[in-house]
Amino acid sequence: MKFELPALPYAKHALEPHMSRETVEYHYEKHHRGYLERLEKLIAGKPEAEKTIEDIIRTSDGKVFNMAAQVWNHSFFWNCMQPKGGGEPGGEIAKLIHDAYGSFSHFRETFVTTGKGRFGSGYVWLVFDGKRVWCTSTLNAENPLLNNETPLLTCDVWEHAYYLDHRNDRGKYLDMFLQHLVNWDFVAAQVKRARALRSDRLVA
């Protein structure tokens, strides 16, 4: 299977002034592309080369897992943002968040605290089990697919994701992400997709 670097869903400058073109370009071209290129070299001519990224994540370890998971995580992360995004969501996402946290402000505080509390590198996520949502964080390349949880939203908290714009202020970066960048339509689509997959499994 030939893996390709997915195109960004917006221009590299489109998230400014909240995320600079320099950050997006460096993150996407150097880190995301680099993980993909290293993955292709690691699995060339091996059984993993015929698997999907998701299957590689679930069945591998070591360097192969790290590269595959980082490719998937980054692709998901880019789609979690959009120009003029952020703020409070509406519809079902708002209800799920309110049911879990009582208010958007409490969710926002929990998401930021969870991300700030991740020691070292990793990701902060909003995940879904078909009924409820909650915030969690993962170390390095790990992601919720390993726990059979459905990721709805993620923010990359590796330093390369925010250092050029925010230096070492991870909390400011996370708060900015929620206020100005989150693509809540994408999050809602993940809920719909998760429910459709669960429904298909029940029918099968």
Structure write-up:
It contains 8 helices and 3 strands, in the order αααααβββααα. By secondary structure, the chain is mainly α.
Q: Topology, pairings included?
A:
Elements: H1 21-43, H2 53-59, H3 62-79, H4 91-101, H5 104-117, E1 122-128, E2 133-139, E3 150-156, H6 163-166, H7 170-181, H8 184-203
Antiparallel strand pairs: 1-2, 1-3
Short structural summary:
It contains eight helices and three strands, in the order αααααβββααα.
Query: Which secondary-structure class do the elements indicate?
Result: mainly alpha
What low-confidence regions span 5 or more consecutive residues with pLDDT below 50?
A: none
The percentage of residues in β strands lies in 5-15%
Largest sheet: 3 strands, antiparallel
Supply the CATH class of the largest domain. Answer: Alpha Beta
Mean pLDDT: 95
- Order of strands in the sheet with the most strands? 2-1-3
Distance between the termini: 27 Å
CATH homology-level superfamily of the largest domain: Iron/manganese superoxide dismutase, C-terminal domain
List keywords for this structure.
204 residues; mainly alpha; Helix Hairpins; globular
